[in-house]
Amino acid sequence: MAELALEDGTIWYDTTGEGHPLVFVHGGWLNGRTWRSQVEHFADEYRIVTVDVRGHGHTGSTDPKRYSVELFADDLEAVCAELDLERPIFCGLSLGSMVVQEYLARHPDRATGAILAGALRSMPSMAVPPSMKLVVSPTPALTATLSMMGPTATFRSMLGSIRAMTGDRWLTVDPTVRSEALEAVGDVSPAEFRKVFDALYRYDPPNLTGVKTPTLVIHGDREAPVVARQGQRIATMVDHGRRIVVDDAGHLVNQDQPAAFNDESETFLADLDLPTEPEPTRA
């Protein structure tokens, strides 16, 4: 992996392959390994970049006492600038889909395309007006829970609360994928877990109307209904958006059904207007 030193921390990322840049941003409390099936599939045709968001994976803890999705998007821009990526394609999962949406809102026509997996606009169980979020914030209670139970048990409790509302295995249908997700969560410190949660909770999503980047929203058929509705809204807000549903998959759709996810993504990518390589000059 490589590192990008910033004033308030160091962002770790990985690159492989050659071609048009395809940048992956993982979900909350996960890491870049989430995308290994996609990296293996697309590295022969694209320049693949996977980023470990602040608080996650190799990047781990950074200096700010508070995180935000906007800060994560700043970091994404910094990595793209460091690698001199021209009109990249982005693929974001869950929290990563928020980061990509923030980028698209800032730069409506700078990306070649976007794939949003398990896409959502805001934390589903926290549908309260932004002006009320500080008043009803669950962060103090979460901090106490993290202190007593740790990140993995806290994450399990959060999953159970959402499953109680949906009545289904919404995160993943695959026990192995679930175990890997919990292992990734266990690598996140309690302080960083809280900072990431706070960023998710406080996020006020941008208006994507006018975004001209072709966008594919992918959900699993076991996705939490409130998340699926948010994803449908994303697909209708952008100028060139559409949503598809993958059978027998949950929120971690790219890991539950990697072959189907890769096939749908490949079809989408094939329709994008990628820059062509200049023909060699003849003597």
From TrEMBL:
InterPro entries: AB_hydrolase, AB_hydrolase_1, AB_hydrolase_fold. Residues 22-263 form the AB hydrolase-1 domain. The keyword Acyltransferase does not apply. It holds the Pfam family Abhydrolase_6. One of its GO terms (molecular function) is hydrolase activity. Keywords: Hydrolase. This is Alpha/beta hydrolase. It comes from Natrialba swarupiae.
